[in-house]
Amino acid sequence: MKIYQTIEIETDGIVCTVWLNRPDVHNAMNDIMISELTSVFRDFFEEENLRLIILRGRGKSFCAGADLHYMKDIAAYGAEENLKDSIKLAQLFSIIYECHVPTISLVHGACFGGGNGLLSACDIALAGINTTFAFSEAKIGIAPSTIAPFVIRRIGEYGAKELMMTAKHFKGEEAARWNLINHAYPESELENALSKFKQQILDCGPHAVRATKELIGQVVHEHHDMVEILDYTTKLITELRASEEGQEGMSAFLQKRKPNWIL
Fold first, then answer.
1. Domain residue ranges of the chain, discontinuous segments joined by +
2. Helix (H, G, I), strand (E, B), or coil: what is residue 24?
């Protein structure tokens, strides 16, 4: 089995668990993790016998968003590099979302930024009631652009306005009320909840489940062009990162100071 730097894979042939494996930084995403996750989910398209994929995180958190070193690199990127990076991230969420195998994300600890993109790209999301969520991008002068197509499909327009425009922190039960996740459980019950959903999916016909997932996608997206949406969102985040406010916001975050728009 292939060895990865930032993730681990466990499989019994029909169920595969993908572990985010950077526990020392709360599984923050960097360029390597994005590439490795994209590669793994692309390979899943060739797996005919696979019936379920579970995405979860090692250590204290599911995913704390972007790695600080990765953010420093992004802040220094030129326009062309910035666009390429945005496209890579959008492609990751898209390939998870479009995977023909059912997907479940199990979320705990903290889930910020791109972590919300990962869980939103999955078919079912379960979380602990004490999990902390946030769309904190606006606080650093940018927008949650590449994750927006997937998150907004879950929570809708007005949920997105409240959570993304305030950048507030909120817990699992509120995340469930917004439909960001399907269900919130006490942390002690998370594993049992996962086992229940796993068995329910495995009790169904494998081809029927895949066909049902494709059916839902066809009905929901009949009048929407995902290619155009992703083109818009990747260009937007590229512009915001390069803007004066975006540069100031990311610099302030990395330097642990207030940005210049806070008096």
1. 7-187+202-206
2. helix
**Model pLDDT for residues 73-132, shown as the tens digit of each residue:** 766 777 777 778 788 989 999 999 999 999 999 999 999 999 999 999 999 999 999 999
Q: Is the pLDDT of residue 179 over 90?
A: yes
Output the six-digit token pair for 89.
Answer: 């991230």
Cα torsion 232, 237, 242, 247 to 10°: value is 160
pTM of the model: 0.86
Indicate the DSSP class of residue 140: G
Cβ atoms 73, 241 nearer than 8 A: no
DSSP state of 179: T
Residue 5's CB is within 10 A of a number of other CB atoms, namely 11
CATH number of 7-187+202-206, picked from 3.90.226.10, 3.40.50.1000, 3.40.710.10, 3.40.50.2300: 3.90.226.10
Per-residue pLDDT tens digits for 36-75: 999 999 999 888 899 999 999 999 999 999 887 777 776 6
Judge contact between 121 and 91, C-beta under 8 A.
no
Tell me the three state secondary structure of residue 61: coil
